[in-house]
């Protein structure tokens, strides 16, 4: 064509972006009882009494109400019945028959193996697990009750609102116990094994021997292999001060390397690093790895070398210290003041002595929202770590490959479990390199990794691929495959079916960072269509420098007007015209490449493809994703060999 093409004006359907505002919350019932009179019914009042506690602790449990009774009681003014009814019906509406009573039993922690103590009854109500009388082994509701100690109901309800405590002797003793259980040399956790003969990273902070009454701090440079356990710090740097600011953070640079190998005063370090040193000493370890002080920050060669080692640094660390609650390295994470945690819904309980107690109820596991969880670089630190101590908003949390996320004392919140860490086989040299029994397991894991990772923020967008290099390095070994610009060679066609759910926010693509067919060429959240039930496109040749496919392509001008409504386009950028003109190339009209099909309903398929423009002789740039609801479009379309545009150099 003699001139640059504009976006064709014929009407096609745009894929509607999801509206987060319309999505319901995780599991908490809607607060529709705000205007309901607060008239607790007899069973709910009885459940939070000494007699009720006896029933909750008994094998037969506490009989609450049937569905019909619970609904009627809620209408009459019992807000607890309404709470229970809404929670159960949200997930088990069809399974709760009108005359089937709900039976509650007491439990102390989600980490315990039984509901009621087989040795002695629990001294108070810690948690309520509800099951139907017809299915006693199937829990359909879990309630976490909280009450203040000095509240009239506090003698019955023993789970307390959380006042932040992450550094008391009791908390550290509980953490130490979990660490010892996991790393016990006689009976260690099988899935948490790490080399007892770990080689230290290139540089670590030596914070002193545990038995030293006056420990010092210095940077240790390991010019030869040194074997010892070490901890790592995962934290938010926060905003960098201006170069002209009077106070600058102490960093490892070429001009500070010699000074740091001498004694370092604790006060010269940022507060989060000070806190990490105190934790390291308190846990009885000598060495700590901190990126700001163990990577030469003004040396590109050293940065590249150490970033390539991130996987082994975090994988081989004895424990990762996560300063999750801190937004800035200057804030620290041990002494933060945070408001106590209360569930949002409170209920009055009339007591036998005439007083009114107040109980707070939550029917969902707590999902913390930490500043650290929003930082792109820390995602792989979480994924690769064998063991983590997480300094959270309210508690010190523990997680390893055999123990789910939990408070170290077991007396606080029950936590929603995040995406699992990499499979334990990564840590076992003798393990077979597989994850799951099917390729679909691995594809699902990778798609989940990409979505969760891209939801985070990077201070430098050019780190889009670098910040997951540790994960891809480990998975290349585990899966015996090659990762090319964020896509796996084995499932390349499947993984081309990515899209941007928030395209309205995206203004430009970085083709020098990654080719247009890679999600890494864009910033922001990435999701995937699929999985593809059939793959129509085939790989002819795939290297870092070129991706050649054999596929079917349709030019938009060949599609009849009445068929345009069956094509749903999701462009990668908000301004597709700018995309067409990027680089000053003479571009042809948009074309469609069929990747494959997905099953919608029984016997019904829809096509998934790429929206492309030709930037050369059968060299194509991706500009979006397409869904075809009418597969007859592709009848008669001939196969051809094409090349997807490589990354732009220079």
Automatic annotation (TrEMBL):
<protein>
    <submittedName>
        <fullName>Heterokaryon incompatibility protein-domain-containing protein</fullName>
    </submittedName>
</protein>
<dbReference type="Pfam" id="PF06985">
    <property type="entry name" value="HET"/>
</dbReference>
<feature type="domain" description="Heterokaryon incompatibility">
    <location>
        <begin position="230"/>
        <end position="381"/>
    </location>
</feature>
<feature type="region of interest" description="Disordered">
    <location>
        <begin position="1"/>
        <end position="35"/>
    </location>
</feature>
<dbReference type="InterPro" id="IPR010730">
    <property type="entry name" value="HET"/>
</dbReference>
